[in-house]
Design a protein that fits this description.
This protein is mainly alpha-helical. It contains 9 helices and 3 strands.
Length: 266
């Protein structure tokens, strides 16, 4: 018999990590408040995540799994709110904004009603499995960008670590509740994609460190110029990768001074 303490621990980890991801767009909402610019707002991602949360919450209620429906109801509410805020800052007329926001809320009501009334829990589970798998496929874009641009800044290692923990917890939870494949399969895929990100980040981070060590050595170059005037060319350890920068400070001296000092921090 499975210990209820183990189930509760796994549930807590799964819910906690998922809610962290659900509230992550708040940073973008704050930026939107100041910039009033929706060009970078991922509307399609918000819409699809809303759909996924609604379907999964209905499925969670149908199989009597509170961790699933509670988490996804919260996620659905948050992403509907994110969509409404984003629509508000779009360059539409007030009537158009109102119509879009009302349509959004009508869609939420219809989606839940149709899912409960006309779709079986098996079909809801299948739809939820497919949509969650597609959502877990999203990090593949960051993997592609990292590989093409040879730049690990596209991968947030903390988010990646969270994805691994979250998907593993949901997968473990699926095993504990009689091997629910509709939850287990997307979780396995999510762990796999997140591990790919983590491995790619480790490889590129290591290669970048070795490249910087071989191509550039930080240092301080000092040149004394006598006679009150002169031209100096400083050659030293210059890092050649795109992340490097040069901080040049020149101490100007009057004509009466005997020495000018030029410092370059590399």
């Amino acid at each position: 018999m499975i210990s209820y303490n183990l189930i509760e621990i796994v549930e807590t980890i799964a819910i906690g990590m998922t809610l962290v991801f659900f509230i992550s767009p708040i940073k973008m909402m704050i930026s939107l408040y100041y910039t009033k610019d929706t060009k970078t707002t991922p509307f399609l991602l918000y819409i699809f995540t809303t759909f996924t949360c609604l379907t999964t919450s209905v499925y969670g209620i149908q199989i009597h799994a509170p961790p699933i429906w509670v988490t996804n109801i919260i996620g659905g509410v948050l992403f509907v709110m994110f969509l409404a805020i984003s629509i508000y800052y779009c360059s539409f007329t007030n009537k158009q904004k109102l119509a879009l926001i009302l349509s959004l809320y009508i869609y939420v009501i219809l989606h839940c009603y149709i899912s409960f009334k006309f779709i079986s829990k098996e079909n809801n589970g299948l739809i939820s499995m497919i949509s969650n798998t597609v959502n877990n496929f999203a990090p593949m874009h960051q993997i592609y960008l990292t590989y093409v641009h040879d730049d690990i800044s596209y991968i947030d290692i903390w988010v990646t670590s969270g994805l691994i923990i979250s998907n593993y917890a949901w997968g473990h939870y699926a095993v504990l509740i009689n091997m629910n494949m509709y939850i287990l399969l997307p979780s396995i895929f999510g762990v796999f994609v997140a591990l790919m990100q983590f491995i790619l980040w480790f490889i590129f981070n290591r290669n970048t460190a070795l490249k910087e060590e071989s191509e550039g050595v930080g240092g301080l170059a000092v040149l004394g110029v006598h006679g009150g005037a002169g031209v100096a060319v400083i050659a030293g350890g210059v890092k050649k990768d795109k992340h490097s920068y040069h901080n040049l400070s020149i101490h100007d001296l009057d004509s009466d001074d005997t020495q000018a000092e030029i410092k370059m921090n590399i």
